[in-house]
Design goal:
With 960 residues, the chain is α+β, with helices and mostly antiparallel strands. The protein contains 23 helices and 36 strands. The strands form 6 sheets. A 10-stranded mixed β-sheet has the order 2-1-3-4-5-15-14-13-11-12. Strands 17-16-19-20-21-32-31-30-28-29 form a 10-stranded mixed β-sheet, with helices on one face. Helix 1 packs antiparallel against helix 5 and helix 3 packs parallel to helix 17. The protein starts with 19 loop residues before the first strand and ends with a helix.
Length: 960
């Protein structure tokens, strides 16, 4: 589409360059920008153009344009608004979706911009704007409809306007009454209260009383009597009669028209397909509830204006002037539009072309307009975060039929592709322990084990009174949060369960279960020591990829293969994973392009392989849906511009982030529906309501109201006190309004200690002896040499007699054996070298460190019996006595009560190691002055470094 200078109205120059709302009013057939303080104030005699700009995660800007027509606006002004909307779209590059909004019949998307509601005022630019606030207060009555956004309509102040189905607001001089029809729902009543608050703040300066009146309440109630007094006393209400507004148009057949010379001509076809749409033309699609205008990419601005006029003319001809008109551009059609066609190609998303927008930007730049934001917003430059505390306790069970077996700590990060697993992760929350219970289904796992794992996980959640978050994961679709919890994750081929073995026997399939002395190829991936995976793949050359590193073993031969596109950080992860897969073997390094013949022989010969990284679903901009689920049928409604207040305690909501979905269950949802949460999530994935090609194996989180974890609340501006309130949504909202906007807290009891099921009974579980601050490493002796990355760092700090390590020493809790060696005298030189090395590190963005400045024992769960209490007390006393006896003269306690030790008693090679310490966090036992001397920085600065940098420094100082 060609754009010239004459096509651009000066009022639109520079529009849409940043996220937010912009509003113009049509004055003398020209758009005039109105001040931000007047946004949401509409006059019945005017027409408006509204632009909503959204900055997407990708950095691109998305635009929605609306033109709003007051009930008393002139046809000429309405036509001008429609044409100016097309011009504004042209100025933005020609791909915005455009909506026609008629007073009283606005779309929910439009109303969401002006929460809680819009209440148009009488008057307009032609009548000089009547200022109602200057007149004496006049009693007004409104009706409110809507569970998520509120349609407010002024009705005559008369008894005949009331009915049992709707909610009414009576605005008097000194008090605002909300009348709740007996057939109205709780959610609508709660939303109407927001309108009451809006009227109080807008028209009464926040100074008036509020009262609620229930339909059918006895006259003995003072406020009820006062309300009916305005109508001359109580009398039965009439039944609500059907009007033209309530008649459904969904039953009308869908029709397609081609716009030729400003006229809509019917298109004759057996079925609606995308092939009917010509890129050089414009079309009208009448779906009954909406009229769509489809504009081909090669159409001119005049053609688009002509199509817009044809749509208005068509509405007048069929006497449905209050319908919405939605205008879409080829390749940027809405989901609703595409769903009207019998077939629509499920092609990949069209790359956003900047051609049209670039031409406009060049024109505006010549006028001196800042167009920096016109093409693209600043993209978010953030690494994927797990949004979970990674210092908690992990337990893992392997499922075998209807039973589950608790895995020992060294094996809880080693999964088989033919198995199903259940895990429970317990971690510290704001004021209590949080729980996450998940299931992991291997690619080769059988349906019987999957169903059993789901059933047992559900029972674990129920045993915690639904206070645990739940997660369902399929192999290959794991979220970052899962890897952060498991840290070092290993997947073997095959399985050990009876279900898997029976399956391969029935299907006469070969048993591919991993064997230590067989041929196996592992792809190594991840971002650091706390997020690294080794996935067993087919041992053939085509499984290689230049963007990854691999481990290959066959009998006594062990190779590491380094792709040409890999980073040093990824290459270092190979050394760490070797410690897990083959701890006692020396590997042969194979760089891509210089492999040995033996390497290719094991893989069955050379062949072509890819070089691109395996694409994983990226998290997209979230969409919130409310759900109704009945008799296996799922219906959803999208909520636009959502906030925490949209989460009603009586409902179920789904937050769709593409890479994962969250099913939020309100406290007052029926108990049977709560148990169907996973089914609802699976139904949502199957229907793919946004047509975004959601995989049926997308991770599903189940979140219960009142127990929302940070990885869910991060999508909202969250107030935890709101989700802890008593009552239904109406009672909560009323409490907030009457308490001046402050929620009434629910004194909810603290969560009990985590439990697990063994043999059909629930028992308290003992916390596993594993630190969550570093990745898992087995207890063993290493025989391999250092990695190149480690050699480069460590050569400056160690003497020739130091132990040859490629990864951190084993995670053990006992002191190391004593010997006669002493600490190296080169501590000062070592400290200077570390300070120099640290100075080269880039400063990370400020964030709260995951590891505390000093290690404190976490408070244990309250004892369940008197005998347990006595045992714990005696154990604590004995432990205290032991520590006191072993404290040396040169040991002191810091300001937080942690026993401090000198550096030479904390190193891994110490001749007199400090007893009873957490050997994974040795540095915390150094005094502040000695810490600064050794590390060249304060503890606070150290813990702000990324974990991998912390680990390198600790290894260099023999504290890791």
């Amino acid at each position: 589409m060609s754009v010239s200078m004459r096509d651009l109205d000066p009022a639109f120059q520079g529009a849409g360059q940043k996220a937010g709302i912009e509003v113009w009013r049509i004055e003398n057939f020209k758009p005039v920008a109105i001040p931000q303080s007047s946004y949401g104030k509409f006059f019945t005699g005017d027409s408006y153009v509204i632009l909503k700009t959204i900055a997407l995660k990708s950095g691109a800007l998305r635009h929605d344009i609306h033109y709003w027509l007051g009930k008393d606006t002139s046809q000429d002004e309405a036509g001008t608004a429609a044409l100016k909307t097309v011009e504004l779209d042209a100025a933005l590059g020609g791909r915005a979706v455009q909506y026609r909004e008629v007073q009283g019949h606005e779309t929910e998307r439009f109303l969401s911009y002006f929460k809680p509601c819009i209440i148009p005022q009488e008057g307009g630019i032609a009548s000089g704007f009547k200022h109602a606030e200057l007149e004496e207060h006049k009693i007004r009555m409104f009706t409110c409809q809507g569970k998520h956004v509120v349609h407010v309509k002024e009705v005559p102040f008369a008894r005949s306007s009331l009915n049992h189905d709707d909610i009414f607001i009576l605005d008097t001089a000194n008090k605002i009454f909300q009348f709740n029809g007996s057939n109205s729902c709780i959610q609508e009543r709660a939303k109407a209260l927001e309108v009451v608050q809006h009227i109080k703040d807008t028209y009464h300066d926040g100074k008036c009383d509020i009262a609620t009146v229930e339909d059918g309440k006895l006259m003995s109630d003072a406020e009820t009597g006062e309300f009916w007094g305005f109508f001359g006393g109580f009398a039965p209400l009439p039944r609500k009669t059907a009007t033209d507004d309530t008649k459904s148009v969904d039953s009308l057949p869908t029709q397609l028209f081609c716009v030729e010379k400003g006229e809509a001509e019917p298109v004759v076809a057996d079925s609606l397909t995308k092939e009917l749409l010509d890129t050089n033309k414009c079309y009208l699609l009448d779906s009954g509830a909406e009229i769509y205008v489809w504009m081909g990419r090669n159409t001119s601005l005049d053609d688009r204006k002509s199509a817009s006029g044809a749509a208005e003319k068509y509405l007048r001809s069929i006497d449905r002037r209050k319908l919405h008109i939605v205008r879409v551009i080829e390749n940027f059609e809405t989901v609703a539009f595409r769903s009207k066609f019998d077939t629509w190609p499920q092609s990949a998303e069209v790359a956003v072309s900047e051609d049209g927008r670039g031409k406009v930007a060049a024109l505006l730049k010549r006028q001196g307009v800042n167009v920096r934001g016109l093409l693209k917003a600043a993209p978010e430059k953030e690494e994927p975060q797990p949004y979970i505390d990674c210092t908690g306790n992990l337990q893992v069970w392997r499922v075998n039929g209807q039973e589950k077996t608790l895995l020992p700590v060294p094996d809880q990060s080693k999964f088989y592709s033919g198995e199903c697993y259940i895990f429970q992760y317990t971690y510290p929350g704001e004021d209590q322990e949080e729980y996450l219970i998940g299931t992991w289904f291997g690619k080769q796992s059988v349906e019987e084990d999957q169903n059993s794992a789901t059933s047992q996980a559900n029972k674990m959640v129920e045993s915690l009174k639904f206070m645990a978050a739940q997660l369902q994961i399929y192999e290959g679709r794991e979220p970052v949060l899962f890897f952060a919890i498991f840290q070092s994750f290993l997947v073997f081929k095959g399985g050990l369960s009876d279900g898997y073995k029976n399956y391969i026997l029935e299907k006469e399939l070969p048993d591919e279960t991993y064997k230590e002395d067989g041929v196996a190829l592992f792809r190594v991936q991840g971002s650091g020591p706390e997020n690294m995976q080794a996935i067993q793949v087919e041992p053939v050359a085509s499984s290689l990829n230049s963007s990854y590193c691999y481990i290959l073993h066959s009998g006594s031969s062990l190779f590491t293969w380094i792709g040409n596109l890999t980073t040093p950080e990824l290459q270092e992860l190979v050394e760490r994973q070797l410690d897990v897969i083959k701890p006692n073997m020396q590997s042969k390094l194979q760089k891509e392009g210089s492999e040995s013949e033996q390497f290719w022989e094991i893989l069955g010969g050379k062949s072509e392989y890819p070089s691109q990284k395996i694409a994983r679903d990226a998290e997209s901009d979230p969409h919130l849906f409310t759900c109704t689920f009945s008799k296996g049928d799922l219906k959803v409604t999208e909520i636009y511009n959502f906030s925490q207040d949209d989460l009603m305690t009586e409902d179920i909501f789904i937050l769709d982030c593409h890479s994962s979905i969250f099913v939020w269950i309100g406290q007052q949802v029926d108990q049977k529906l709560k148990t169907q949460a996973l089914v609802i999530g699976e139904k949502f994935l199957k229907h793919d309501f946004l047509l975004e090609k959601l995989s049926p194996q997308t991770p599903i989180y189940i979140i219960t109201e009142g127990s929302e974890p940070q990885f869910f609340t991060r999508f909202f501006t969250w107030d935890s006190t709101k989700s802890s309130m008593h009552g239904n949504s109406f009672q909560r909202k009323l409490s907030i309004i009457k308490n001046g906007g402050r929620p009434t807290l629910n004194n909810k009891p603290k969560r009990r200690a985590p439990v697990s099921s063994h043999g059909g009974r629930s028992v308290a579980t003992e916390k596993p002896q594993r630190s969550r601050s570093v990745s898992f490493s087995p207890d063993r002796v290493r025989v391999r040499g250092r990695s190149p990355a480690f050699n480069a760092l460590a050569s400056t700090f160690e003497n020739a007699n130091a132990r040859n390590l490629s990864t951190p020493p084993p995670l053990v809790r006992k002191p190391y054996p004593k010997s006669s060696a002493a600490d190296s005298p080169n501590a000062a030189a070592r400290s200077n070298a570390i300070a120099s090395l640290t100075a080269t590190f880039e400063q990370p963005p400020p964030r709260e460190p995951l590891m505390p400045r000093s290690v404190k024992p976490r408070p244990k769960s309250p004892p369940k019996s008197e005998s347990n209490s006595k045992e714990n007390l005696m154990s604590s006393k004995m432990e205290s006595l032991t520590i006191q006896e072993d404290v040396k003269e040169n040991e002191v306690e810091d300001e937080e009560g942690l026993t401090l030790h000198p550096y030479d008693r904390l190193t891994t090679l110490s001749t007199d190691p400090a007893p009873d310490i957490d050997v994974t966090k040795r540095e915390t036992y150094l005094s502040s002055s000695e810490f600064r001397e050794k590390f060249g920085m304060t503890k606070e600065a150290f813990y702000k470094l990324p974990k991998w940098k912390q680990n390198k420094l600790k290894m260099a100082l023999q504290l890791f």
